[in-house]
Design a protein that fits this description.
heterodimer; A: 175 residues; alpha+beta; 4-stranded antiparallel β-sheet; two-stranded antiparallel sheet; 17% helix; 22% strand; elongated; B: 161 residues; mainly alpha; 0% strand; globular
Chain lengths: 175, 161
């Protein structure tokens, strides 16, 4: 090895521990646990419905956009059909409000640059005359699906839904 | 060789010094005055993304978060007496020696307790500063630590946004 090669190797060896020190294995594991993308859905506002958005969108990557809130709203308690066109109203403890609308996948998100709430935050989902108010508040977590994982998983919290009973919903699904 | 023997002896002593059956005496604030405090704490701090998460050192059970009965649902019913008892143990046992001191001094210096410092913003708290000096939440907690729970303040604290 030439002296130049040796110097380069030493620099690389010195930088390696620094690189590993910056990694967050907990975050990396959480991202990996989300699994692969659905090949039929492009990365973007319609992808990964029902997953905890801020795992990737919390500013730590790998997503570029940073959210303060994000989630998926379904039509009813019994039916996990995406709720399209619902309004999600977020109100923080200072009274500041932010509105988002669910898209054809039922997804909504709020970018951190648009809303940096003072926790706790209260949430209401509305569509026409139907209003669903979250009974407890959000303390720190911006991903709905961090807690709302569904009763079918054995957890005590169902997915986010608008109506307990039947009602007429707009056509669901993305074209 | 001598060094190895020294460390081996040190390790053996280290393993035998602690008796698994040892206990310490803890003096907490009155448990019979804790119910209104618990209802406030569960409401304000016990959501699933905060102290209703099982991994927290200060773990709270109750209506708005983690349930003691695994079959019970979040928001599925009011906080139970068993949950209030578990919450009492959780709060008192967080820093038992310091809690004993604070109670012994009639709650004069609650800032010794991490349980108090964090929501007051006197120490980093992921949930931010939630309590201001003298507000109903503050009075509720301090009065309980002084063994004279101000029930009206605890009830007023439930209305904190």
């Amino acid at each position: 090895m030439t002296s130049r090669g040796l110097a380069l190797a030493l620099v690389v060896a010195a930088l390696l521990p620094l690189a590993s020190a910056c990694a967050d294995p907990v975050h990396d594991d959480a991202v990996e646990a989300l699994g692969a993308e659905n090949p039929n859905v492009p990365e973007g506002p319609l992808h990964r419905p029902g997953q905890p958005c801020l795992v990737c969108h919390d500013g730590s990557g790998p997503a570029d956009l940073t959210f303060s809130f994000g989630g998926t709203v379904y039509q009813t308690e019994q039916d996990k059909t995406p709720m399209v066109g619902a309004t999600v109203l977020l109100t923080d403890s200072s009274g500041a409000k932010q509105i988002a609308e669910t898209n054809c996948a039922g997804n909504f998100f709020v970018e951190a640059v648009d809303f940096a709430p003072v926790f706790p935050v209260h949430v209401q989902v509305e569509f026409e005359a139907a209003v669903a108010t979250m009974r407890s508040h959000i303390g720190v977590q911006g991903s709905c699906a961090a807690c709302h994982v569904g009763k079918d998983t054995g957890a005590g919290v169902d997915h986010v839904y608008l109506a307990q009973g039947p009602m007429t919903f707009p056509p669901s699904g993305c074209k | 060789m001598k060094t190895a023997l020294f460390f081996a002896a040190f390790a053996i002593v280290g393993c035998t010094m602690v008796n698994a059956d040892d206990t310490i005496d803890v003096r907490g604030p009155p448990e019979d005055q804790f119910q209104p405090v618990a209802l406030y704490l569960v409401h304000r701090c016990g959501s699933l993304d905060c102290h209703g998460e099982p991994g927290r050192n200060l773990r709270l059970y109750g209506q708005y978060g983690l349930r003691l009965d695994r079959g019970a649902l979040t928001n599925g019913g009011p906080t139970t007496p068993d949950e209030i008892e578990a919450d009492y143990r959780s709060v008192v046992a967080l820093e038992p020696e310091i809690m004993t001191e604070v109670v012994h001094d009639h709650g004069k210096d609650p800032q010794q307790l991490t349980f108090y410092r964090k929501p007051r913003g006197l120490e980093h708290h992921k949930g931010g500063t939630l309590i201001k000096a003298g507000d109903p939440q503050d009075v509720c907690i301090r009065s309980w630590l002084a063994s004279s729970t101000d029930v009206a303040s605890c009830q007023a604290a439930l209305d904190t946004p």
